Automatic annotation (TrEMBL):
NCBIfam families: spore_GerD. PROSITE patterns: PROKAR_LIPOPROTEIN (PS51257). It comes from Sporolactobacillus laevolacticus DSM 442. InterPro entries: GerD_central. It comes from the Bacteria. Residues 63-173 form the Spore germination GerD central core domain. This is Spore germination protein.
Length: 183
């Protein structure tokens, strides 16, 4: 912060000197603005700005509130130029991945809410009933890896004690019914 003072003081002195000089005319606003911007573009000027931004009080003074940020984002990103910016950003795989990670939990919540919505459920059913999609499902069901997986799942199910007991109960019930019919 100690360096900021001399820089600002230098800017003020330069502006003051430019304004003094009896016979010389006062610099215009544009000339003053150009002079200040030129000073800020120097290494000392950049260093002074960095030091200003490190100061907690200064950062607090320039922070925007949530409403201002939201409004600016909406106004910027909904324009044609904003749409083009999004398209370019989403082409970058790193950006897309980070964006997806950031939004993952919110998207999951949204999807769970939508799954409870009858209108959304109806749209999903319409999609699943589409003839092209049904054809793809049938093609998938006919593949060897899928059939192998089904066989494996059935074998695992049949090996469970609960399934064996239920199967035995069904066989016993069926035999009892057959015996009753024969009597």
């Amino acid at each position: 912060m100690a360096r900021v003072g001399p820089l600002i003081m230098s800017v003020v002195v330069l502006i003051g000197l430019a304004g003094c000089g009896g016979q010389q005319k006062q610099p215009s606003y544009q000339e003053n603005k150009k002079m200040v911007l030129d000073i800020l573009k120097t290494d000392d000027g950049k260093k002074a700005v960095r030091e200003l931004l490190k100061d907690k009080e200064m950062r607090g003074a320039i922070m925007l509130d949530d409403k201002a940020v939201s409004k600016t984002l909406i106004q910027t990103l909904t324009t044609e130029q904003g749409k083009k910016l999004w398209q370019e950003l989403l082409k970058d795989p790193d950006f897309s991945e980070q964006l997806a990670k950031t939004m993952e939990s919110e998207n999951e919540k949204l999807l769970k809410q939508m799954m409870k919505d009858p209108g959304y459920q109806g749209m999903m059913m319409d999609i699943l009933k589409a003839p092209e999609l049904q054809q793809q499902y049938l093609s998938l069901l006919k593949t060897k890896p899928f059939r192998q997986q089904i066989d494996k799942s059935i074998a695992e199910l049949m090996a469970t004690p609960l399934f064996k007991k239920e199967l035995a109960d069904v066989i016993v019930d069926t035999l009892k019914k057959e015996q009753e019919k024969q009597k």
